[in-house]
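Dear Dr. L.,

I hope this message finds you well. Following up on our conversation about the binding site, I have prepared a predicted three-dimensional model of the protein together with calcium ion. For your records, I am including the exact sequence and ligand specification that went into the calculation, followed by the structure tokens. Please feel free to forward this to your student if that is useful.
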Amino acid sequence: MKHIKTSLAIIALASSSAAFAAVSFDTFDTDGDGAISQKEASVNTQLVEIFSALDADGNGELSKEEFSKVQ
Ligand SMILES: [Ca+2]
Ligand SMILES: [Ca+2]
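The resulting structure of the complex is given below.
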């Protein structure tokens, strides 16, 4: 069930990409280190929900490539 819920969250996020597009990777990466940390992601509730699903390598940060799955 958790997986399904996560998938739906990704779909919801992707379908709202018009609004989300304005909130780009660089917007989240406030310290400019090239990755979105959980703290940086915390400004967006939807991103927090799918953070672990997007973090494919499980290092606790979203690279530009990992983040691009929602765009
Ligand atoms: Ca960062
Ligand atoms: Ca990662």
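In brief: The chain has a mean pLDDT of 84.

With kind regards,
A. P.
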